[in-house]
Request: fold
Amino acid sequence: MTNTSDSKNVKLIVIGLMIGLLLSALDQTVVSTAMPTVINQLHGFNLYSWVFSIYMLTSTTAVPIFGKLADLYGRRNIYLVGMGFFIIGSALCGLSQNMTELIVFRGIQGIGAGALMPLAMTIIGDIFPPEKRGKMQGVFGAVFGLSSIIGPAAGGFIVDHLNWQWIFYVNLPFGIIAAIILSIALKEKRNKEKRSIDWFGAIFLTGSIVSILLGLVLAGATDQPGTHYAWGSPQIIGLFCIGAILIGLFLFIESKAKEPIIPLFLFKNKVISVVSIAGFFMGTGMFGAITYIPLFVQGVVGTSASLAGYVLTPLMLSLIIASIIGGRIISKVTYRSIIIVSMTIMGIGFILMSTMNVHTSNLSVVFYMIITGFGMGSLMPTFTIAVQSAVGPELRGVATSSSQFFRSIGGTMGVSIMGAIMANQMASGLKEAAKTTLAQVPPATLKQFSNPQLLLNAATRKSMPHDVFLTVQQVLANSIDWVFITGVIFVLIGAVAAIFLGKERLKPSGVTEGKESGKMKVEMEML
Reply:
């Protein structure tokens, strides 16, 4: 357990954790801005999506494993291991000579990232009492949002004024500083009793996650960059079947393991089970919005590629404000109230976005994003605080990482599902247009210019026949609208799930962590 007696140490720990969290979150947005330059120099356009996908695969898989290891061997040791993976992966990414090397090294970097965020939240839960966690979780949520704002600008600056390798090298000094601070300031008193590791559980969990996420990543329209197989192909169905089988085996192993990676008895706790469900559906909606808003602004509204990188700034600014507010009010109201109200606001934002069309102005998009961001902001700190307060210190790491894990899985699945819906809507819309509004257009011209991806390039937009341009623009707008309609459904399911939280709320020190953690501890010892 962490020793919090030294207030100076607490301040240093918070600084170190913020640096680590900023690095892991910032790295995603910095890389996205720099990738066009990277693929141009490394000649790997067809592998473009894998630079992001492999990071997502390894980081999502690592989250619950690092959470359990932190409960077994201490937060500091496991956090430093994760930071080591992240630093080494960053250095190797900068040394990459081709896309294959970059993808492999991004996987190593992702393993480290899977430790930095959930363990940062876990350590905050250790060093602050329940009544102060809300404020700190809100601040950390704001740091995460801030990274999404400064990331595109930092990536663009580095690429324009330095070499692209520096988007990875910049992690090294800050990562090392964060590791040194935490190794000195974070003191722990742990039970020295030897405890076993559920290696079989870790292997089957990893296999199931990788199989399912690979199926989601590789599925889609076969003519899209980075995708290879249709949704109904034997390869994709096979990956999903393998994933399902491995999940079944994982659950069986966890029911028998002495130290399970994800203790199944955790989900007997109403707060943890409901928050996991609500967080999953929140993730599907949130990541869907973040992914497809820039596509609408650039492809439909016609904003330049450089400015499109900043289009999420209003959403992230409102998210930061709401995160801070949510962290401060969580001790005054029930979890259910915050989650339902926040998801309702988020749903309203999605409904407004589903009305966007070719005539929608940038100002309207900004307004819709601000509303959506206010809905998102309070959810993340509320989810984290709720699960941490439902267990004692001995289970806080695995509970926190499990909550983060379900949000990550939800986000991954949401983006894939929404992408499939958008692709199907575009295909049917273009097919219908070829019979009606574009019936008089020569087939060769229609085939050349009917790809909605052409709308992302300003020069190509100007070269398109006017009637083709207007039709394809409208089809893309309608297709993206269906993404947000789907998001409304996901958010609604999450809000309904939150009803079952009842009147659960954050309690002062010594109340929540007495009754619940004692019950959990007894069940854990019985297994």
In short: The chain is about 75% helix and 0% strand. The CA atoms of residues 347 and 489 lie 8 Å apart. Confidence is low (pLDDT under 50) at residues 222-226, 511-527. The first helix runs from residue 7 to 42.
